[in-house]
Amino acid sequence: MIKKIIAKNFKVSNWSGGSTRELYIFPEDSFYADRNFNFRLSIATTEEEESTFTSLPNVNRFLSILEGELFLEHENRYSRTLSKFEIENFDGSWITKAKGKVIDFNLMLKNCNGSLNFKEFLEVSDIEIKNQEFIVIYCIDGNITINGNIINKNEIIVARKENILLSSEYSKIFIAEIYDLKK
User: Fold this and answer.
1) What pLDDT digit, counting tens, does each position of 16-32 carry?
2) How far is CA 70 from the centre of its chain?
3) How many other CB atoms sit within 10 Å of the CB of residue 162?
4) DSSP label of 112
5) Of 80, 93, 118, 134, which cross-links 57 as Cys (Cβ 3.0–4.6 Å)?
6) What's this model's pTM, rounded to 2 decimal places?
């Protein structure tokens, strides 16, 4: 299964510090508010200078910055500043405070494992990705071709149990790989 999702189909909602666009959630009939998902990808806008992340026990989080810079403090653990396209992986149950107005990219994993990677293509390139369970690719800038499907800026493609042949020239993408779904 390969599914393309364009920006006008993303679900938009508000949270205490700004707004969020849900790019994809699995299972597709699950709801973030009910916390009954295996994984969720979203883009959030933080409009407040300081915010505290929602507590998400049993959720492994990946966070990256699309615009701006964000100072993260994981209480009693460590702190760091995230710049554009850097990726932070942390436990959703941690008390996490943030400083900075940003647009960020989120991958949340529950009852599964996975990874998030940033890739920039500076020339014409082809890469093959062996798919274990799910691959979700978000086009940050430029456009890419995946198994014959053209994906433009701010669009995603979801592939389930399909190997990917990705062709690109001068683009930036996030690649989320999800595997070991437990339910």
Assistant:
1) 778 899 999 999 999 99
2) 16
3) 16
4) S
5) 93
6) 0.94
